[in-house]
Amino acid sequence: MREVSNVLVTGGLGFIGSAFMRFLFRTNAFTGRVVNLDLLTYAGNPDNVAGFVDESRYSFVRGDICDQQLVSRLCQEHAIDTIVNFAAESHVDRSIAGPGVFIQTNIVGTYSLLEVVRSFPSIHFHHVSTDEVYGSLGITGAFDEQSPYRPNSPYSASKAASDHLVRSYAHTFGISTTISNCSNNYGPFQFPEKLIPLMILNAVERKPLPVYGDGLNIRDWLYVDDHVEAIWTVICEGDRGATYNIGGKNEWTNIAIVEKIADLLGRIQREEPGQFRSLITFVKDRPGHDRRYAIDSNKLTNQLGWRARHDFEAGLDETIRWYLRNSQWISRVKTGAYRQWIKKNYDER
Ligand code: NAD
Ligand code: DAU
Q1: Among the four residues 77, 84, 277, 294, which has the most C-beta atoms within 10 Å?
Q2: Using CB atoms within 10 A of its CB, is residue 2 exposed (0-12), middle (13-18) or buried (19+)?
Q3: Is residue 104 part of a domain?
């Protein structure tokens, strides 16, 4: 069991990093301090941490994971013993439109953090990664930790490169690392460029629900709180240098998800059946679109006892209701008002 005192979370203003910190502040298993280093890109939303921003054990620093001097200083000043790296460019479509920033943040950024960790031998480095590094599956099978890396998008290639760097630094320099490769997350505070929140928000506004290609691509979906609990388990109990896959055993075609959202929303808002389904619109496919992901997380379950606790139907219902209740969060994202705090406190980049 690894002792965790003070944690440097990178990318904590994003969807999963903020959920991880929410978990740290509610679990009795953690009593230390958290430093959140985030560059405040479009995906970094200060509203995501409103629930604990006044917590005395929390501090925020705006900065880039590529800035080795800054990261070294933070590790020194805050006696950091664990770094959890969520910071990344995370959206596949954006990586197709412009890969450069993915190379910089996901690859150079991870390399920079690893260079810092080399000079702090007591720090454990956990790297948060994705199932997309394994490429695309046919109709059967699931990725396990031995599956070969076959990334297909600039995003997944950059994450694959970062995983390899972490592995190589553990092997060559003996630093303490773990890596987790997780499937698609959903839940509150997810930026509405991703499938599930985009469909919820468009449906509420009676806008088209754009389904790429034939809608039969398959993803495995996991509630974000299950993911962050798995990460905590791996950090505390995972073998040094090891990789763990995290998944929900919860595969759905995209069209089935969109129909589910349409039906749940119809029920919640007491609409005529089929109202929201009529908004579904098939659009041009994503270039290089991976057909199917499925993840075998037996290693994590059998070795460390983790299992997903959220049922998909209930988690999706909860997520839809969260977006319906949090219209202010949504309108601040849509109007760009969530960036006012940044303009007030920092120079907008
Ligand atoms: P996100 O896009 O919501 O958040 C990313 C955060 O990183 C933002 O707050 C952004 O400001 C910050 N950031 C970006 N570049 C930075 C830099 N150079 N320095 C410091 N901060 C920077 O992402 P997410 O969905 O929360 O994903 C978090 C991590 O989990 C990523 O590494 C992603 O690859 C991985 N992951 C995501 C999913 C998913 O379904 N979303 C699934 C598996 C793995
Ligand atoms: O598998 C884990 C990955 O899941 C993470 O590593 C990524 O950070 C995360 O963005 C996610 O990648 P996907 O590409 O799977 O997620 P996205 O929400 O963009 O798309 C999910 C599926 O829905 C995918 O097959 C594309 C499709 N889609 C997406 C959008 C945005 C549509 O059909 N229409 C859409 O408008």
Answers
A1: 84
A2: middle
A3: yes
CATH of the domain at 134: 3.40.50.720
Residue 55 is a catalytic residue: no
Q: Which atom of ligand 2 is closest in space to residue 196's alpha carbon?
A: 18
Decide if 156 is inside a domain. yes
Q: Containing domain of residue 154, as a range?
A: 7-190+222-249+292-310+336-347
Nearest CA to ligand 1 atom 17: 64
Place of tokens 């959206």: 91
Q: Ligand 1, from 15, 69, 105, 132: best to mutate by most atoms within 8 Å of Cβ?
A: 15
Ligand 1 nearest atom to the CA of residue 17, by list position? 26
Question: How far apart are alpha carbons 246 and 243 in whole angstroms?
Answer: 10
Judge if the beta carbon of residue 163 lies within 6 A of ligand 2: no
| Residue-by-residue pLDDT tens, the chain, 349 positions | 899 999 999 999 999 999 999 999 999 999 999 999 999 999 999 999 999 999 999 999 999 999 999 999 999 999 999 999 999 999 999 999 999 999 999 999 999 999 999 999 999 999 999 999 999 999 999 999 999 999 999 999 999 999 999 999 999 999 999 999 999 999 999 999 999 999 999 999 999 999 999 999 999 999 999 999 999 999 999 999 999 999 999 999 999 999 999 999 999 999 987 999 999 999 999 999 999 999 999 999 999 999 999 999 999 999 999 999 999 999 999 999 998 877 777 765 4
Beta-sheet strand order (sheet of 82-85): 58-62, 34-38, 7-10, 82-85, 124-130, 176-182, 243-246
Within a domain: 42: yes
Look at the chain and report how many structural domains it folds into: 1
Q: Which of 89, 185, 212, 251 to probe ligand 2 with, by most ligand atoms within 8 A of CB?
A: 212
pTM of the predicted structure, to 2 decimals? 0.98
Task: Answer yes or no: 226 catalytic.
Answer: no
Please tell me the total number of residues recorded for the chain in this structure. 349
Q: Are 251 and 181 in contact (CB under 8 A)?
A: no
Is 331 within the bounds of a domain? no
